[in-house]
Amino acid sequence: MPPPPHRRTGFSRKAQYGLLFGYAVAVAGILVALLLLAIAVVDPRGFSAIKGAALDATAPVSAGGRSVTQFFSGIGEGVSAYFRAGSQNASLRRELEQTRRDLVAAQTARAENAQLRALLGLARQTEDEITVARIVGSSYGSARRLATLSAGAGDGVRVGQPVRSADGLIGRVLEAGRWASRVLLVSDGASSVPVRSLRNNVPALAVGRGDGTIELRTLEVGVNPFRGGDIVVTSGIGGIFPPGVPVARVVRLEGDTAIARPLADPARTEAAIVQPIYQPAAAGELEDAQPANPSGPVSGPPPGAPALETTPEPLQRNPNYQPALQDPQPGQFVRPPAVPAQPPARPEPQG
Amino acid sequence: MNRIAGSEAEVAVFDLRRRHVPLLSTIAAILLALLPIVSTSPLLPDFGFLLLITWRLLRPEIWTARMALGLGLIADLVVGHPLGQSMLLWTSLFLVFDLIDTRLGFRDYMMDWLIAAGAILFHSIGAWYIALIMGSDIAFTIMVPQIVLTILAYPLAARVVLALDRWRLMR
């Protein structure tokens, strides 16, 4: 292809200036874009009004087509299930037998748990939800793993709230528009969820790897506490995610870390539940992160009760923890320690 | 179809089509990001970007570099990138394309593909690096399948753009 004619301006002064002006605009645009990116790095919640509005405008399109794609992916699954019916039947039967045994054990444990809770006078934690919405789309062309949710600030959704499905944790709200919001999936590289293993209670940090899997990082060196098939649940440390939500299942080990696959598949999730931030102080500024008042959701043991700490990992020992809670001020505790409880008065801030 | 315009209105329609098909097709490709696909790893090409560079390589004279700025803004808002990512990457690529056009007297289809491959690589590395700055610490190898697929999709995009171009200029 010959070079384009309009770049050769000849002797026309006007054309020359026009070309120069075009390049000047382009370079200025690049500088503006750099500035916007710098602002986005420093303050990720900047421009939330613009981005929220764009989200609101575009989400209905995705929502409309979602049922269509689910229909087609359902067909594909149905066909593959038909071909694998025999082996699948056998393995499902084995799994069912195992599950039935586990179910009996779980029911016994649940009854015992309820008895113990009643004994301790511990109120059962309410599993409140803010809204139930559908996942209507996701970023499929970029390195980030973001999903679009069909509920927004109008439904009570706020930035930072955890999102889960019946299967397990999906992620956190990243941006909230009026009618739609964007969710940072647990498999995104910027997502880190404090978890613990169900089998041996080892605390770990679940960091996304960007390809649909999660890396489980522990503090233990030398010995890997995980095994294939282990299930990790949220530990509730950090105050964002409520404890006990299933997160992922370990698929393989890599050195000191384990690679896990999220239990909740956003592609197949029918209903996503947006929950309130577990300990609202955790999402605020550090000044708000005083010891929670004893009427709060996790205020530690009630006065007089024996310490009931299921998560043995002190926050301060974990080097890469939730950024909102890093660097506790001297003399302040982000989470009340398991010592005999303070009187209900709010302590004076020091310094 | 009657190839000769019969009236002033038809002339106007042809003119509109000739002017706006590249822009509108690129915006439509950007809007493909709204497809209700929920995927767990980056695999499918960034259609908006692919169509943009294809139009630019096949028809260098229709757009100046600042056109990429506005289209990048649309892409950032629609896809949910950090604001400024596509604006920055696309506009700088257009400037590089202009540079290549002035240096290179003549380029054929294979050359276009090579340039497109370089552009796709640059775009993916840029997006990955910006995600890294934003705190998304992922291995670059995850991006490789998408890069390869996007480069292989260039001939397809070229077909689409050529068909659109022929239809656009038909009278």
Q: Based on helices, strands and strand pairing, what is the structural class of chain B?
A: mainly alpha
Strand content of chain B: under 5%
Number of strands of chain B: 0
Q: Let me know the largest β-sheet of chain B.
A: none
The helicity of chain A comes to: 25-40%
Structural class of chain A: alpha+beta
Report on this model:
The complex is a heterodimer of chains A (351) and B (171). With 351 residues, chain A is α+β, with helices and mostly antiparallel strands. Among the domains of chain A are: 196 residues, Rod shape-determining protein MreC, domain 1 (Thrombin, subunit H), CATH 2.40.10.340; 29 residues. Helix content of chain A is 29%, strand content 19%. Chain A contains 3 helices and 13 strands. In chain A, the strands form 2 sheets. Chain A has a 7-stranded antiparallel beta sheet with strand order 1-13-4-5-6-3-2, covered by helices on one side. In chain A, strands 7-8-9-12-11-10 form a 6-stranded antiparallel β-barrel. About 18% of the residues of chain A have low confidence. With 171 residues, chain B is an all-alpha fold. Chain B has one domain. Chain B contains 6 helices and no strands. In chain B, helix 1 packs antiparallel against helix 6 and helix 2 crosses helix 6. The chains are: A alpha+beta (351), B mainly alpha (171).
Task: Report a brief summary of the structure.
The complex is a heterodimer of chains A (351) and B (171). Chain A is an alpha+beta fold.
List the defining traits of the structure above.
heterodimer, A: 351 residues, alpha+beta, Thrombin, subunit H, six-stranded antiparallel beta barrel, 13 strands, elongated, B: 171 residues, mainly alpha
